[in-house]
Amino acid sequence: MAAVHHASDELIPDLAEEMKSRAAGSAAAKLEHFGGAEISRALSRLSPGFAMDVLDALPADARERALASASAELARQWQRNAAYPKESIGRMMEPVVAAYPPEASVGATIEKLRELVKTTFITYIYVVDAAEHLLGIVTMRDLLFSDHGSTLRNVMLRDPFALPANLPMMEAMKLVLDRHYPVYPVIDADKRLIGLVRGQSMFEAHAIEISLQAGSMVGLEKEERVATPPAKSLKMRHPWLQLNLLTAFLAAAVVGFFQDTIDRLVILALFLPVLAGQSGNTGCQALAVTLRGMTLGELKPGGARELVSKEAWLGAMNGAGVGLMAALGMYITATGQHLQQAVTLSVVVFLAMVGACIASGISGAMVPLTLKRMGFDPATASSIFLTTATDVVSMGMLLFLATVMVR
User: Is this prediction's pTM over 0.70?
Assistant: First the structure.
């Protein structure tokens, strides 16, 4: 077994900060050489969800050292959180603090809180029965201004909003968009209070998830961070680049199929990247809106057809707008080269632009919807598939129309 390192208390905050800049696997690789006390103290400074990811990534012996060195309450909470799926609310729970029976008096509760607030930041008091079922909550304001002889049952807010522990984090975000509370109680299937989730932790996790979509769209793994070693980054990125190369060959094959047309009308080569760029941008706009709608729960059941129709219409309108400018550019260029087919070439460019933008809008909406239906992450490498579709369609349409219409 590798030697166990130890760190002074002063170094723990710096160690925790370093962990925040790493992916879970990389953070675990750094922590596994430390003693259990150092690991548990560093993990306690991380957000609960990320701490669980790091804990899972630790080797078994390092994980056991951390659990053995943590406080009984924290170790119990980590073990409870580990039972829930990744990216669920249950993985982000903190231990419950300030939970009291409904018969407790306001005065007695305040006295108990005097010591508790010295070590813990308390926002709400939770009222639970003997079986830990959540009955209500009491705000600090209501507690302090109530009669000290009154019971918590009389001052609590009944049937408070609570999050199920097995609820996916992205689904939970949809529920809390209009409930901006600092802390949310978490309940199990039997409505028992089993933990707390801070609003800040949820919104941070959501922001990270949104930021990861940009990388996923081009084949970056979610685990890759700035501090990821170059060799590991190469291993994660290279397969997607090979896939991108294969899909690029499809676009090249389309151009090669119409080689005779290009040899006859070399001017078309000038406008191939124009069509590919405009249609690609149209598709990326549709892709971004679709992913955003799926993430925020705006895409309702049965709404896929309406979304695809909307993106097709937008593609037609935008394609017509930019197509007119592209056609004008073709006419000026063809006239400058004294080509007799200048008008026909302009019409070809206009029609190809409209058709390519329609197809790109549809593809931008369909790619993430199809990936989700197949059980994959909608953002995963969606840009690679979209780029292939837009390149093949835009170039193929321009060259096909030119072959048919320009003699």
Answer: no
